[in-house]
Amino acid sequence: MRNSMMGSLRVLLGVAVLVPAFALARVTVASAQIAGPKILWALGGTANTADYRGHLAMGGLVVLDNKGGAKSLNLTIAYVQPPSFYYGNDGDFVCEVTNPKDLSYSLTNGKLTLTLSQSDTCYQTVDPSQQFSNSRNSVSFTLYARGSKLRMVSTQASLRDGEGDTINSLALSGEMNPSGSGSSQATGVRFVSGGGGVSSSGDLFLGHMALAGLISLNPMTKKEKTGTAKSLDLTLTYYVPGYDNVVCHLTDPSDVSYTLDKGVGTLTLTVGSNDTCNLGNNHNSLSFDLYVAGASGRIVSTGGNLLSSTEAPIDTAVTADFSTPGGF
Questions:
Q1: pLDDT at 217 over 60
Q2: What's the Rg (C-alpha) of the chain?
Q3: Which of 85, 236, 285, 328 has the highest CB neighbour number within 10 Å of its CB?
Q4: Is residue 15, in this structure, part of any structural domain at all?
Q5: Strand order across the 264-270 sheet
Q6: Sequence-separated (6 or more) residues with CB below 8 Å from residue 35
Q7: Which of 178, 195, 220 is the last residue of a domain?
Q8: Residue 124 burial by CB count (10 A; 0-12/13-18/19+): exposed, middle or buried?
Q9: What is the DSSP string of 3-40?
Q10: Rounded to whole angstroms, how far apart are CA atoms 297 and 291?
Q11: 285: β partners
Q12: Who contacts 284 (Cβ-Cβ below 8 Å, separation ≥6)?
């Protein structure tokens, strides 16, 4: 009888120990421990109220405070969906999110929310002059923390696309990792690795893009507004269903141009005459917002004029790592 009672006690004690441990599995750190600069990114699939399936990518640089908000925020959201019969690719959009008040988080509840404001800029990818508002619309995530690193998965959204439909379903996952402060130089060899979605005005289905390689940027002097590259070795591949892959190997440093100021800038990759591409694309380009914080970095696509294998222009929702091999 005593052995039975002791066995039951061990089980109960085990539960008493395990339950609190499980309950604390989501968050085990205080806000003060994760405060500071972070490189943020997320990527995944979506659906909107018009029943279009899409891809959404986001990335940028955020400095978290220890009170559940942000001291600074620079974030890009890129979205693509299949072209509609009447509006073509007008649903594809990019949002530039820069208001620190847009971000809130709670480690106690394990939540992070981005709520766009009137000061943020959203525009159609095919025509950046066509701007629209996503004020008070949001994306929410469940947040998981270990040490100073954070992982997140989307739970709900209310963003509007370029045609005015609401993105009401999504499945995104991403990270917020510690970084240095925003840099005005992107020194060292940078790994580029990532991907995302592709939409083409000549095709009815979404495709995918992947890219990987190495870029070494030349430092910019104070008088320079646009930087160049010292070396480049990057492969870019994408497709739309039912058609051949487009594969481009970029090796000419003159293919690269960039801007950068306090961690925020742009990066442009242009297919040159010295590059190998199974579909022309000579002098066509892909543009990104560039975020650099010490040795860490992230790029998010914003536009360009690359062609699919049907020779129709593509829009992209792509994000990729842009970090040195040594970490941050």
A1: yes
A2: 22
A3: 236
A4: no
A5: 256-261, 264-270, 285-293, 296-304, 314-323, 189-200, 207-217, 229-239, 246-250, 276-277
A6: 64, 65, 66
A7: 178
A8: buried
A9: HHHHHHHHHHHHHHHHHHHHHTSS--S-HHHH-EEEEE
A10: 5
A11: 270
A12: 270, 271, 304, 305, 306, 307
| Domain presence at residue 4 | no
pLDDT of 116 reads: 98
Task: Please say whether the beta carbons of 162 and 125 come within 8 A.
Answer: yes
CB 237 within 8 A of CB 222: no
Transcribe 103-152 into DSSP letters.
EEEETTTTEEEEE--TTSEEEETTEEEEEE--TT-EEEEEEEEETTEEEE
Q: How far is the C-alpha of 58 from the C-alpha of 73, rounded, in Å?
A: 13
Tokens 């040594």, located at residue: 326
- Supply the CATH number for residue 53's domain: 2.40.160
Q: Which residues contact 283 (CB under 8 A, 6 or more apart)?
A: 270, 271, 272, 273
Range of the domain at 37: 22-178
pLDDT tens track for 7-43: 443 333 344 334 343 344 455 455 657 889 999 999 9
pLDDT in tens, 144-198: 988 888 999 999 999 999 999 999 999 999 999 888 888 888 888 999 999 999 9
Residue with tokens 């914003």: 302
> Distance of CA 303 to CAs 13, 105, 238, 318, Å?
58, 30, 15, 10
Q: Of residues 298 and 148, which shows the higher confidence score?
A: 298
Instruction: Give the least confident one: 78-87, 103-112, 134-143, 269-278.
Output: 78-87
Q: Which of 153, 178, 203 is the last residue of a domain?
A: 178
For 56-71, b/e burial (b = at least 16 CB within 10 A) is bbbbbbbbbbeebebe
